[in-house]
Design goal:
- The protein is mainly α.
- It has a single domain, classed as 23S rRNA-intervening sequence (de novo design (two linked rop proteins), Up-down Bundle), CATH 1.20.1440.
- It is built from five helices and two strands; from the N terminus they run αββαααα.
- It has a two-stranded antiparallel ribbon with strand order 1-2.
- Strand 1 and strand 2 form a beta hairpin.
- Helix 2 packs antiparallel against helix 3.
- The radius of gyration is 17 Å and the shape is elongated.
């Protein structure tokens, strides 16, 4: 995937001889996921029926990264967890729209399968984070009750 323009100040992405080198941070993966979806959708020819699903996919895919960024800027642990939960829902919604494109419009494509795989991996990362945050909350509550 060729990426011409990056938001260098926000994401601190280093481009070395056309290879993208990113830290293993969820916000970078979400950003690249959004770019994958944008590039795939720009390359396709969409009729009026599939365009409805394309627009929904674009909204949900870009929402994942937006909510992760909001979480990073949150003012409390509860707010952070809530943004991650929203990002997780958007990621799962993106998987739904991708599968509808693939199965309902017979868009069998290697790139679409890669996008689906990335959406699934992002969903798993976000789900693990949300579960961990919930466990931390429970431990804090138990500590408060014991005192």
């Amino acid at each position: 995937m060729q990426i011409r323009c990056m938001c260098l100040l926000l994401f601190k992405v280093k481009v070395i001889s056309e290879n993208l080198k990113v830290e293993k941070d969820i916000k970078y993966r979400c950003y690249l996921f959004s770019l994958m979806v944008i590039n795939f959708l720009k390359a396709g020819k969409w009729d009026s029926l599939s365009l409805v699903i394309v627009k929904q996919l674009m909204r949900s895919a870009s929402s994942v990264g937006a909510n992760v960024i909001e979480a990073k800027n949150s003012s409390s642990r509860i707010e952070f967890k809530r943004y991650y939960e929203i990002a997780l829902k958007s990621s799962k919604e993106s998987k739904y729209w991708i599968c509808l494109l693939r199965d309902g419009f017979e868009k069998v494509d290697v790139e679409l399968n890669n996008i689906l795989k990335e959406a699934d991996e992002i969903s798993r990362i976000l789900a693990a984070s949300v579960i961990k945050l919930k466990k931390i909350k429970q431990q804090i509550q138990k500590t408060i009750i014991v005192k």
